Structures are given as C-alpha cells and as structure tokens.
C-alpha cells in the first residue's frame, strides 16, 4: 500500500469491509501460549485489532487520518498485525491495488462534479453482516458544482 492516502487508511481501519479472516486449523499447532487443536475454525478478527486501544491509543474510536501521516509502518509501531484490512500473507487480497485505484478514481470523478454532505437523516450504525455495512444506508446530499453537468 502507498503511504499518501491517510483518509483511505483511516476509513479502512475503522470501517473496512472485512470483519475477520476465516481459517481452519488442519493439525494441532502452538501459537504463542495457545495450543490450537486440529479441526477447529478460527476467525482472526482484524476489525478487533483495528479497534484495540492498546495498539492505537485512547482515541482509537476517533476518525483521525493524521495517524497515518508518517506511513503505515510508523503509525502501527512496525506491528504488521495492527492494521491488515486486506489480510496478510499468501492469501491476502488480490484486489487490493484495484480497489484502491478504483476508490480514488470514483471519488475524484464525484468531487469534480459535486460537493456532498451527510444528510441529517443519517444514523451512524456500522453493522457486521457478511462484511461491515451501514445498517440504515448512507444518506448524502449532493450539490452539483456546475450547472450543465
Ligand atoms: C476495499 C476493498 C477490499 C477489501 C478491504 C478486501 C479485503 C480482503 C480480505 C481481508 C481478504 C481475505 C484475505 C485473507 O483471508 O487473508 C480478501 C481476499 C480476496 N479479495 Fe479482497 N478486498 C477488497 C476488494 C477486492 C476486490 C475489488 C477484489 C477483486 C476485484 C478482491 C478480490 C479478492 C480475492 C480473489 C480474495 C481471495 C484471495 C485468496 O484467497 O487467495 N477484493 N480481500
């Protein structure tokens, strides 16, 4: 990931679509102080680590893009397990670069044509269903920047 999209990273930290990485344990394995028996299912909850005050500080629940101002490595104190919205390792997301580029293109296309503000009707309620979703949708008010757009 590049180091110049603070808002994008902070959005992925607090509201990334992935709630956890499902894994199956094929054979008994020792993981730190834990002994994991074979044939169990695990959910490695990146969302919990992204909301952990021990890793992110007491303001963990605030949207503060400037945490990433010096890049991901410094903001996580070089702990790769503190921030992994696209997973980690060989099965990490193959669509990461595509999703990042697409987000930038779509946002820049919208912002060239509209300003948008959050509607007073919006109720903040992120909800893990399959992925993380706004429970009641996101109502925004679009104002065109140019008359003939
Ligand atoms: C912001 C958008 C996205 C996020 C946060 C995201 C996140 C993730 C995560 C957490 C995983 C699981 C990694 C693991 O289990 O270790 C994953 C896997 C995957 N993602 Fe994404 N993803 C995004 C967009 C996309 C897009 C746009 C595509 C395709 C165009 C895509 C294709 C895949 C595929 C094929 C896998 C399975 C990789 C494998 O099992 O080897 N993702 N993604």
TrEMBL record:
Matches recorded under Gene3D superfamilies: Cytochrome P450
Listed PROSITE patterns: CYTOCHROME_P450
PANTHER family given in the database record: CYTOCHROME P450 CYP749A22-LIKE, CYTOCHROME P450 FAMILY MEMBER
Family membership noted in the UniProt record: Belongs to the cytochrome P450 family.
UniProt organism field: Gossypium tomentosum (Hawaiian cotton)
Compartment list: Membrane
Binding site for heme: 93
SUPFAM superfamilies assigned to the protein according to its UniProt record, in alphabetical order: Cytochrome P450
Coiled-coil segments on the chain, per record: none
Cofactor: heme
GO cellular component: membrane
Statement: the UniProt record of this protein carries the keyword Oxidoreductase: yes
Annotated InterPro entries: Cyt_P450 (IPR001128), Cyt_P450_CS (IPR017972), Cyt_P450_E_grp-I (IPR002401), Cyt_P450_sf (IPR036396), Cytochrome_P450_Monooxygen (IPR050665)
Keyword field contains Transmembrane: yes
Annotated GO MF terms: heme binding; iron ion binding; monooxygenase activity; oxidoreductase activity, acting on paired donors, with incorporation or reduction of molecular oxygen
Domain of life: Eukaryota
Membrane topology note: Single-pass membrane protein
Protein name (record): Cytochrome P450
